Automatic annotation (TrEMBL):
UniProt-listed Pfam families: F-box, FBD, LRR_2, LRR_At5g56370
TM regions (residue ranges): none
Name used for this protein in its record: F-box domain-containing protein
Organism: Brassica rapa subsp. trilocularis
F-box domain location: 14-62, 423-469, 848-896
Amino acid sequence: MKAARLGSEEVMYPDRISNLPNDLLLRILSLAPVRTAMSTSLLSKRWKYVWKMMPRLVYDETCPYIGPLGFDLFCGVSLPLHEALKTLNLKLGKYTDSIDTLLFPNIRSNLLKMTINLNYFYSYYTPITFPNNINVFKTLLVLKLKGRIVLDVVDSPVCFPSLKILHLICVNFQCEESFTRLLSACPVLEDLFLQRLSSRGRFLFSMSVPSLQRLYITKECATYGSDEPRLEISTPCLKYLKIFDRRGHYNFLEDMPKLVEADVSVDVYKNEKLLRVLSSVEHLVICLYPSMVLDRTDNLIFNRLLHLELDVCNIFRSNLLLSLLKYFPNLKSLKLGRTYPKDSEDQLYCLVSEPSSVPNCLSFHLEILQWRVYGGTLDEREAAAYILKNAHHLKTARISLHTTGMDNEMSAVKLGTEDVTFSDMISNLPDDLLIRILSLLPISEAMNTSLLSKRWESLWKMMPVLKYVEKSCPTMTSQGFVEFCRRSLQLHEAPVLKTLTIKLQLQSVPLILSSLPETVFQKLVVLKLHMIRYLAFDDSPPRRYFSDGKPSVCFRSLKGLHLRSVSFSDEQYFCRLISACPLLEDVFFDTVRTCAPKTIFLPPPQKILEISTPCLKYLKIKNITGRLIFTKDMPNLVAATLEVDPSQTSDFLRILTSVEFLSIHLYANEVLLLADKISQRLLHLELCIYGKNSRNLLLHLLKYSPKLRVLKLQEIHELLMGPPLTDPCQLAYLEKFDDPPPSVCNPSSVPECLSFHLQTFKWRCYRGTMEEKEVVRYILQNARCLKTATIYVSSCRKKKERLKIKELKSMPKASTSCLLVPYLSFPLRFRSQTMKAARLGSEEVTYPDRISQLPDDLLLRILSLVPVRTAMSTSLLSKRWKPVWKMMPMLVYDETCPYIGSLGFDLFCGVSLPLHEALKTLNLKLGKYSDSIDTLLFPNIGSNLLDMTINLNYYYGYYTPIKFPNNLNVFKTLFVLKLQGKIVLDVVDSPVCFPSLKILHLTCVNFQCEESFTRLLSSCPVLEDLFLQRLCSGGRFLFNMSVPSLQRLSITSEPAYYGSDEPRLEISTPCLKYLKIFDRCGYYNFLEDMPKLVEADVSVDMSKNENLLRVLSSVEHLVICLYPSMVLDLTDSLIFNRLLHLELDVCNSFRSNLLLRLLKYFPNLQSLKLGCTYPKDTEGQLYCLVSEQGSVPKCLSFHLESIQWTGYGGTLDEREAAAYILKNAHRLKTATIRLHTTCMENGYLVGVRNLNGFSSGLAQAKVDLSKLLANNVEMETYEGNVITLEATS
C-alpha cells in the first residue's frame, strides 16, 4: 500500500491508541512490567502521566532493573511518583535490609493492599520492624507477608487503624512479644491467616483480638519434629475457625458465642477445652478419638449444631457413635469417615444393645446420612442398621464402600435384614433433558423406557426427532419393521415433529406413505428417507393422480426433504411427492431411481427433467447424467456449485446472473460464455478448467467480476483412463479438451477486482509452464489488497519442485501484507501417521470432568446461553454444580419454553426466583394474559436487582394489569425498568417508589387513567432517561409530564394509522439535554424553557406546536421537519446563537427565498444538511426567484464549512439557492450534492450541467463541468451517485 496523496501532501495516519480512554490505557499498561510502563512516558505528552495513575503495581526483582539503579533504589525512586496506587505487590529474590528505609517511607498514603513475598532459599531472614508510624499504614486494608521475613515490632510505634485482613505465611518473629504487639496494633482486624513455622522447643504466643471474625491456623508442610507451641487465644467475636495442627496446644481463654462454623484437626489430648468453645457452632468438621468420646459429660449439649462431619481415626465402635448422638439433639446432616479403615474380623467387637431411648436427632431431625469408607464390619453394620431403623425423617442415605469390604460379586449391601435402596436421580431431571437423552438411543429402546415407571410412560411420545433404522431391530422382518413404524407414529404426541428419518434395507418391502398416520403429515418439518427400494403414495395406480387433480396426502408443514438411495414405483410418484409439499424449502437428492432396473430417474439419460424454482437461493449439482432444464430464471440465487461433466456446464450458465458464490467446471473455450453470463455481484469464484488456459482468457473473466474477493483455480490437463467412449456427443467434447484456448486481446487496464478487492488466491495443480507463470506473476504484481496466495506445485521430481517454489517466492508482489504459501500437490508424502488410542497396561484411559474445573465466571457464562430450566437442572450433576446456577447475574424467563413438571409458568417463576442469590438483570417474556405479576413475581425477587424487562407479546384484547401494590425492596434498588406490550398500569393509589430508577422505557403500554401516568413519573425522583412509545387511541386526553431530573426524552407513536387520536402532553423538564419526538398527531406544550438542551430531533405538526421553536433556541444540533408556513412565522426576536449543525427536511415544494431567509436566524451555523422527502421536478411550476440581498447571512460569510444536499432535483429554485450558497460561503470546505434519479437524462447528469456558473467564495473561480471532472468530482444519484466539491487553495 502506497501513501495516498491529496495535492502535494501525504496522508498521515493518526495515533489511534493514544485516543483511547485512560481506563483502557491503564489496563494495557497493567499487562506490562513496571519498567516498560514507565518508559511509555517518553512517547508523547499524552502518555507522560498515564503510568502514574496505575492502581496496581507488581515489582518483581527477577525482572532486570532500569539503568544503573539497584532494585531497592529503583523502587524507592519510582514509588513516590505514583498518584493513584491502590495495590502493591513486592516480589524479592534475595536478602534486603532496606524495606523499612526505602520502601515504606516512599509509598503514598492512599495504598489499600500490600503484599511482600521473599522467595529465596539461603538462611538469612529479611528484617521488618515498621520503625516509623508512616501514613501508608493508616489506610492499609490488606497486608500479606510471605517467606523469609523476621518481624521485630516490640519497640515500634506502628499502628494499622484500618487493617482488616492479615496473612502471615511462614513468617518468623524476633520474640513472642512481637507477635502480640503486631496483633494489638490492628484494632479492627477481622480476618487472620497464620501458617506457622516448625521450630524446636516450647514457646507461648498470646492472641487477643476482640474484633477478629475469621481465624485460619495451619502448620508448615508435613514434618512436626519436637515442636510444641502454645497459643492462648481470646477472640470473643469469632464466627469462623479452622485449625490444622496436631502438635500445638491451643488454649481458648474466652467462650465464642458467635462461632458458626468450625473445621478442627488437632490432638484432643492437648486441647481439653476445645469442645467447650465449640458448643455454639452450627457446622462442625472434627477429627475425634474414642477416648475423647468416652470422657464426655451430659452438661455439654450442642443445641445449635445442624451439620456434623466426623472422622474417627482409630478402630470404630458403634456404641461410641450412638452415645455421641444424644449430645446433638437438632442434628440434620451426619457425615462419617475413617482415615485409616480396618477390616479385621477377629477383633473384639463391642456389640450394641438398643438403648432405652432413641436419640432425639434420630427421631425428629436427621435428614441426610453420608458414610465414606464403609468397611462392612460388625460394628458398622449394627450402627448403620440402628440409624436407618430409627431415623424417621431421613431423606437421603449415601454409603461409599471401601474396596476391602466388597464381595467378589457386586450385590446389594445388606444391613441387618434390610436392603439399601439407592434413589432414582435421573427421573428427577427435567423433561427436556430426558428427551435429549432418549434421542441418543434407538427408537425401540426409547420406547422400552415407558415400562420403568409412570414418570417415563409418555416421555418418548414427546421426542421431536424420530429415527427408524431397520438394522437396529434385527429380530423384526421387513414387513414387521414397517408396521412397527406406523404404529409407533400413531402414538406420538409431540405438537411438532422436527425430523423423521426412515432407513430401510434394500431388500425391504415397499414403503407406502398413505399408510402413515394423518398427524404426521400435519406436524412434520423434515423428512429423511434412506435405502427405500419402493416408495409409493398408496396402492392405487399413479395415473389416478392426474384424474383427481389432488395428491392423496399433503405435507402441510414440510420444509426439508432428503432422499438417499430411494426408488419410486413409478416416475409420476416423484411428481406427486413434490407437489404434496407446498412449503418445501430444502431438497437433497442422492441416487433417486425408478423401479425399472438399470434406469436412473434423476434424470435418466434418455429423458429431460424440467425444474421451475424461481425463489431458489442455493443450488448444488454433482455427478449427474442426462439433462436438466430450468424453465424460469432464479433472481434470488446466491450460491451455486456445479460439479458436473464440463460438457453439461453450458446448460446452466443462464441461471448464474445473480450468484455471489460460484464453483464450476468448464472447458477452456467456454470461459468466454461464462464471462458474458457471470454476475457483477460475484465475490467468490472456484473455477476448474479442462484443457489449456491462457493469461488473456483469465483476465477477460476477471474484467467482468469487478467485486471478486476470492479466486481459486484448478487446471485439468489429462483425462482419467477409462473405457473407450462411443457416444458422439462425448467424443465431440473430448475433442474440445485438446483444442487450443480461444484468442482474446490483451486487456488495456488492470481488472478492478485486482486493484481493489481480491484478497485470497489459490491455484491447484500448478505445473510452472510459461502461461501459468505469466498468470501468477500478473496477479501478484497487480493485486494490491491480496492477503494470502496459496499455490500447490505439481511435479514428479523433487528438484523441479524446489525450483518452482523458489521462482514463486522471488516474484514481486504489489501487496506488502501478502503471504505467499507454496505447497506440494502430493499430500501422501507428508501424511502423518494416524493417532492410535493410548493404552496403559490393560486399563483404559479415563478422561476427567474438565468442565467442572473451570472457574465460576466461565461456568456462569455457559449457563447464560441455555434456558433457565436447563441451568437449574445442572444442580443435580454434582456438588460442584449445586450452587452455581444460583449465582447467575442475568435470567430470561420465556413462557414460550415449556415449564418444569406440573407447575405453571407463573408459579414456576414464583418458586425459582427467591433461590437466586446474585440476580442483577431479569427479563420476563410472557405469551398470554397473567394477573399474578404483582402477587407472584415482584414479592419473590431479591433486593439486589438492577435491570428488569417485562414483555407481553400476545394479540388478543386482554391487557395484563400491573399496580405495584406494595413498596417492595426490589423497587428500591431498580436502576432500569422496561415495560412492553399489552400492559395496563394503574398506580393511582399505589405507594410504590423507585428511588434509584434512572432509565424507564414504556413501549405500547396503556394506562388506567391520566393520573396513573403522572403518578408513575412522580415516583421516580432521579429519572434521567425516558422512552415512550404511545398507543394510538381515539379521542382527546391530557398527560402531564413533570420530571425535574430528566435528561433524555424520546417520544414516538405506534406506527401505521393515526385515526382521530389527538393527545395533549404538558411537559416540564428544565434539565433536558436530548429531545426526540416523532409524532405528527400529538399536541406538545412545553411549560418551561430548557436551557441545557443540546440536541433535538423533532418531527411533529408545527401547526399544533406553536411554542416548540422557543424551547429549541439553545440547541447545538437540530434535526427538524419544516413547512414553508413555519418559516414565514419566524421573527427577529428568536435567534439560534448556539446552533452549529442543522438537518432540514422540507416536505412541500422547495422555495429558495424561504431557505435563505431562514439562514439569518442561525448566525453561527457550521454544517447544513438539506433533504427533500418528496422532491419535485416539474419545470412548469411557478418558482420564487431569489434576488441577492444587500447583506449576506452571517453564517455564510464566516462559519459555514459543510453543506450536504440530498434529493437535489435541479429545479430553478434549487439551482438559484445552490448558486447563492456556493458564491457567498467563503469558509466552505465540502459541498456534497446527491442527485435524484429524475435528474438523469440519457446517461448525463442534468444537475451537473446546470452547475455552470457556480463560483466558490474561496477560489473566486468559475466552476464548469469539465473543471469539476478534472478535480476528481464524484457524481452519484440516490442509488449511489454523489457530487463532491472540495475547496482548495
